[in-house]
């Protein structure tokens, strides 16, 4: 049968389309014979027909016919035959040199020219090869071609293929298709000579084949080194096809790349990142799509556009009731970022690191940083909204780490006031939390709030913890023998009872919890967890926060369902989530002993907390939305189960060193200012209650009320104190439960 096929070919009119011949049916018969032969034998036993195919290099001959596309349409038939053969034959074929060598050559032909009639067959063939490599990852080594070896083998008798003889003058540095990156090229080169960028049809922005016309590639400083002498043509062909005008082809090519990057073979991972243009494809397309976003896109639209999954971003402007200018471009950018994120998430470890670093250097620093550092308020707002969106979207730990280093830097030593601008972008973003534009402040605070929820230890350490490690915000007082135990009133030695403070003399019984109530709600004392374990009693802490706002400035007790207990459930759920995130960070269960702390060092709360405390100190003079965002970030910080954070943000009785401030002390100053200002406002309490009801939607909007900013600030302050009280109780309950 096989001899008959080739005898028939030599007497064939090479100008007649292959569909007018018996070649397709003969190929199907050949495949059928091979499949039947395999079914009739035990697994692993090679039959005579398969032996003939391998020994007589039938696949090599088919490749030659396919490359010449003679008769017309032959390439398509060859691709289909290869795909079916590899997909249906159960015994491993790729280890045979007379299989993987022609397969490798056929791979080079794929993606040579975009939008060809064989594009669908090409991607099907490439994907079946990828699937086979996924099943047996060691086989990938057959597809890593050594360029120097191919140079040394020129002119030998073993080189029999037509494309090799053609490449006598050029194969030393490239394949016969000219696809792969030349070793002397910079890493920014695409190496896709046969893809005519200027002649491509315009791509739709609603799929992964977004146009890369007129793309300017920026080389990295370290990219001037020569690439290793290896080719990974399977990757190069898939990279070509990711640029196909047909979105389905592009998505299949991306799926193939996803399979290849996940292969555990170190040599393949190294070749993938060092000898192909994969890093450039990811980053250059990100840059292209980012730059294609219109400057006028509304930041709110960036925030609220639906979640995007790569490959599923088909978008019809006519069918979208919530369309807005730039939505198609935004969806394309977010879709491609999601693909990069998922690719890095699935990639082999060293490949993932290399890909993430490329995104960091070529996209984050090269494209996003200049936008975030600009002075135009509209530009700042749009770029910060995009940063916020990708912070929310990223799921790969490796890419998240690079994003965190991009935003915050890698510094871990305590901050000093003189060096807060050491990492310019971090300094600029934190300054934007206190920007003259409330929109920029809110957007940047939201970005930091979501950043704090990411499972990366460096985020909290860089922003807050590195400045609290030595506990030099406290004033150390050696404990006298008679003060070792908690005194009768429940306070630790040296603490101040707020009930004796002039600010807290007007305490309503309705706003405190009796000892009996606390006995029923607090965890019982056990021999291993006694009630008086050296911590400030939790009911003292909770009451301290609940009593901070004076009665005449409270309005929640006039409205049903706004009590302190409403925060307990949310605090419990959020604290549980934060504990799950922080579990692998192995934080200590108790504060560092003061005797081991460097209390002589000057304390600086850090740039981030400084801006938040400054904002908190102006809560009575800031817009309602700004106050909500500031308190939201502070409550997020308070939820972290680190003993130093708990002490600094949630313990009113900590002995602060001279010149230091804590969250509680900042609120105390705000309350002191509030008590003075209340006296100047006529009908303060009725106005406060009306504002609360309007905010809750219980009262219709009416005439503007005097001092509206202050009244809204008082309401936020009261609610924030209740939230802090709930967090303190939940954290105490968790630490006291065996």
From TrEMBL:
Residues 605-697 form the FHF complex subunit HOOK-interacting protein C-terminal domain. Transmembrane segments: none annotated. InterPro entries: FHIP (IPR019384), FHIP_C (IPR045669), FHIP_KELAA_motif (IPR045668). Residues 161-187, 511-535 are annotated as: Disordered. Pfam families: DUF5917, KELAA, RAI16-like. Residues 166-182, 511-523 have a biased composition (Polar residues). It comes from the Eukaryota. PANTHER family: FHF COMPLEX SUBUNIT HOOK INTERACTING PROTEIN 2A (PTHR21705:SF10), RAI16 PROTEIN-RELATED (PTHR21705). Belongs to the FHIP family. This is FHF complex subunit HOOK-interacting protein C-terminal domain-containing protein. The lineage of its organism: Eukaryota, Metazoa, Chordata, Craniata, Vertebrata.
């Amino acid at each position: 049968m096989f001899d008959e096929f080739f005898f028939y070919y030599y007497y064939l009119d090479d100008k007649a389309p292959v569909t007018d011949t018996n070649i397709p049916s003969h190929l199907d018969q050949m495949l059928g014979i091979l499949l039947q032969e395999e079914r009739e034998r035990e697994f692993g036993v090679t039959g005579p027909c398969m032996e003939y195919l391998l020994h007589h290099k039938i696949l090599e001959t088919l490749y030659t016919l396919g490359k010449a596309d003679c008769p017309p349409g032959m390439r398509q038939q060859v691709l289909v035959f290869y795909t079916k053969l590899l997909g249906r034959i159960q015994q491993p074929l790729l280890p045979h040199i007379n299989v993987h060598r022609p397969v490798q050559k056929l791979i080079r032909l794929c993606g040579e020219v975009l939008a060809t009639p064989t594009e669908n067959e090409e991607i099907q063939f490439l994907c079946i090869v990828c699937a086979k490599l996924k099943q047996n990852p060691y086989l990938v080594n057959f597809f890593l071609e050594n360029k120097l070896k191919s140079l040394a083998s020129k002119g030998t008798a073993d080189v029999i293929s037509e494309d090799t003889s053609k490449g006598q003058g050029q194969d030393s540095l490239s394949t016969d298709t000219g696809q792969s990156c030349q070793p002397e090229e910079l890493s920014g080169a695409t190496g896709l000579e046969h893809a005519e960028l200027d002649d491509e049809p315009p791509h739709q922005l609603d799929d992964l084949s977004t146009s890369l016309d007129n793309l300017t590639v920026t080389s990295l400083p370290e990219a001037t080194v020569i690439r290793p002498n290896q080719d990974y043509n399977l990757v190069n062909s898939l990279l070509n096809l990711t640029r196909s005008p047909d979105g389905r082809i592009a998505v299949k090519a991306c799926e193939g790349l996803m399979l290849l990057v996940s292969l555990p073979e170190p040599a393949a991972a190294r070749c993938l990142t060092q000898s192909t243009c994969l890093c450039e494809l990811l980053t250059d397309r990100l840059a292209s799509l980012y730059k294609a976003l219109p400057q006028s896109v509304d930041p709110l639209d960036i925030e609220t556009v639906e979640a995007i999954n790569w490959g599923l971003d088909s978008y019809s402007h006519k069918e979208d009731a919530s369309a807005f200018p730039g939505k198609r471009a935004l969806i394309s950018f977010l879709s491609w970022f999601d693909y990069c994120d998922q690719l890095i998430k699935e990639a082999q470890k060293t490949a993932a690191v290399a890909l993430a670093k490329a995104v960091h250097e070529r996209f984050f620093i090269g494209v996003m940083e200049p936008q975030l550092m600009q002075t135009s308020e509209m530009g700042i707002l749009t770029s910060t909204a995009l940063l916020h969106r990708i912070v929310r979207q990223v799921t790969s730990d490796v890419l998240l780490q690079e994003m965190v280093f991009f935003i915050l830097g890698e510094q871990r030593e305590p901050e000093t006031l003189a060096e807060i601008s050491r990492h310019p972008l971090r300094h600029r973003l934190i300054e934007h939390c206190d920007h003259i534009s409330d929109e920029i402040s809110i957007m940047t605070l939201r970005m930091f709030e979501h950043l704090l929820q990411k499972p990366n230890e460096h985020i909290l350490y860089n922003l807050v913890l590195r400045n609290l490690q030595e506990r030099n915000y406290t004033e150390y007082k050696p404990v006298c023998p008679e003060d070792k135990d908690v005194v009768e009133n429940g306070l630790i030695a040296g603490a101040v009872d707020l009930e004796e403070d002039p600010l807290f003399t007007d305490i309503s019984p309705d706003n405190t919890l009796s000892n009996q109530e606390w006995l029923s709600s607090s965890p019982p004392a056990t021999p291993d967890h006694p009630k008086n374990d050296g911590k400030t009693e939790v009911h003292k802490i909770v009451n301290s926060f609940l009593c901070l706002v004076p009665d005449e400035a409270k309005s929640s007790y006039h409205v049903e369902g706004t009590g302190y207990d409403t925060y307990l459930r949310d605090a419990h759920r959020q604290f549980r989530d934060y504990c799950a995130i922080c579990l692998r960070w192995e934080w200590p269960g108790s504060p560092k002993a003061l005797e081991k702390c460097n209390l002589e060092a000057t304390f600086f709360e850090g740039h981030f907390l400084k801006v938040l405390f400054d904002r908190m100190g102006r809560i009575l003079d800031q817009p309602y939305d700004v106050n909500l965002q500031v308190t939201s970030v502070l409550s997020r910080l308070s939820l972290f189960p680190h003993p130093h954070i708990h002490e600094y943000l949630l313990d009113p009785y900590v002995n602060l060193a001279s010149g230091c401030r804590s969250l509680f002390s900042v609120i105390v100053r705000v309350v002191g200012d509030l008590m003075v200002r209340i006296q100047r406002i006529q009908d303060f309490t009725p106005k406060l209650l009306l504002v609360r009801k309007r905010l809750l939607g219980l009262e219709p909007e009416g005439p503007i009320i005097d001092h509206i900013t202050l009244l809204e600030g008082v309401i936020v302050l009261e609610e924030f104190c209740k939230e802090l009280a709930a967090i303190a109780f939940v954290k105490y309950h968790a630490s006291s439960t065996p």
